[in-house]
Write a structure and sequence with these properties.
With about 210 residues, the protein is an alpha/beta fold. The chain has one domain: Rossmann fold (3-Layer(aba) Sandwich), CATH 3.40.50.300. It has an eight-stranded mixed β-sheet, sandwiched between helices. The chain has a two-stranded antiparallel sheet with strand order 2-3. The termini are far apart. About 5% of the residues have low confidence.
């Protein structure tokens, strides 16, 4: 059976196909506000329009503080050419009630915040997908105990479609599970502070960072 060379050429022109001999140039990232972290992220910041996973053993060890500078910038930045106002920052299934004074102190525009509390995990995933793909959300945060490879791919595709940043908080057990996330980091609290480990970074390398926060 002969291979059609024109079909192969078309496949290789697809930007989703990576060719081993070609150097990958990361798109400009969203500045995290932490210089030590940005130095290790391709593009010099959080990957835009994609899924980031943050693994934490328990909440409250700095995972939100790590995101605040970028979220503050997004809540005050026009969404794009078709939108002359900032995008929404959606919180899906947060395990706590966000504290408005603290968010304001970080520079978050509270008028651009949405809190969604779905009934179950399937509704949580659906809500996050809809928010990401809508084109009106700058970022969508979700707290997911379970998120399989297929679900992560759905979130990644929705983030690309809506030009939105997806952030999923997951337990450390997810470390051994496959994921379509462009970036996966783990936070570990110790007596010396919070350690940030970059487990997976599309176009980058794993790294362990201390004294980031």
């Amino acid at each position: 059976m002969q291979r059609d060379p024109s079909s192969l050429d078309k496949l290789l022109e697809n930007p989703r196909v990576w060719r081993g001999h070609r150097q990958v140039h990361a798109a400009a990232g969203l500045a995290s506000g932490y210089e030590a972290l940005d130095r290790h992220l391709p593009g010099g910041g959080w990957p835009r329009n994609s899924l980031t996973e943050i693994l934490v053993e328990h909440y409250g060890i700095g995972e939100l503080r790590l995101l605040m500078p970028a979220l503050a910038a997004l809540s005050n930045e026009d969404k794009g050419a078709d939108c002359n106002e900032p995008g929404w920052i959606a919180w899906v299934s947060p395990p706590f009630q966000p504290y408005p004074p603290a968010l304001q102190q970080w520079g978050i525009d509270l008028s651009r915040m949405l809190i969604v509390r779905p009934k179950d995990s399937s509704e949580m995933l659906w809500s996050a997908e809809q928010a990401l793909s809508s084109g009106t959300c700058a970022a969508v945060l979700l707290w997911a105990d379970k998120l399989d490879d297929q679900a992560s791919r759905r979130l990644q595709l929705a983030a690309e479609k809506g030009n939105s940043w997806a952030i999923a908080f997951r337990p450390p057990a997810a470390r051994s599970q496959p994921s379509a996330a462009a970036l996966r980091i783990e936070l570990l609290a110790s007596s010396e502070g919070t350690r940030v480990s970059i487990l997976k970074s599309r176009g980058g390398r794993p790294a362990v960072l201390h004294d980031v926060l």
